[in-house]
Design goal:
The chain has five helices and no strands. By secondary structure, it is mostly helical.
């Protein structure tokens, strides 16, 4: 669409992703709990998703703690790196906050097509791969943790 120099294209690609990540995360952390769509189909577990599936096929328990919990970086963020209580009200809030985190990552990925406006095709593929690599592991962690919390709440 737009023909930019290689330098400007690289500059925009490097500059915009952090701005998008931080802006979306900041906005979503400010969203009141009543607007978190925690009962929407996209946040429900798919038929194959289970605690066992995440552990056996994705080995999520081995790498999930290596990723940062960005919610704690924001004033209104709900830190999810560690479980701070086993009280049902806290666990319910934690489960909703996993939806908030997942929503932030889905929305961040949705910005990938913007990069198609000034990048050549090969770079569009790279930008899309970046969006997937940077966000899908976080989405998987949110879904895995939500499954575990709901299992505890239902027992």
């Amino acid at each position: 669409m737009f023909k930019l120099s290689v330098g400007l294209t690289t500059f925009l690609n490097i500059l915009l992703w952090p701005i998008i990540h931080m802006s979306v995360s900041w906005l979503i952390t400010r969203l009141p709990l009543k607007y978190i769509p925690n009962h929407t189909w996209i946040f429900n577990p798919l038929g194959f998703e289970s605690h066992t599936w995440y552990r056996n096929y994705l080995l999520i328990h081995k790498w999930k703690d290596r990723l940062p919990d960005a919610a704690a970086w924001f004033e209104h963020g709900f830190a999810k790196a560690q479980l701070k209580s086993s009280e049902p009200s806290y666990l319910q809030r934690f489960a909703i906050e996993t939806v908030r985190g997942e929503l932030a990552h889905w929305l961040t990925m949705a910005f990938a097509p913007i990069f198609y406006l000034w990048n050549p095709t090969w770079a569009c593929i790279v930008m899309t791969c970046y969006a997937l690599i940077a966000n899908l592991p976080c989405i998987l962690i949110q879904r895995y943790n939500r499954l575990r919390i709901k299992k505890v709440l239902n027992t």
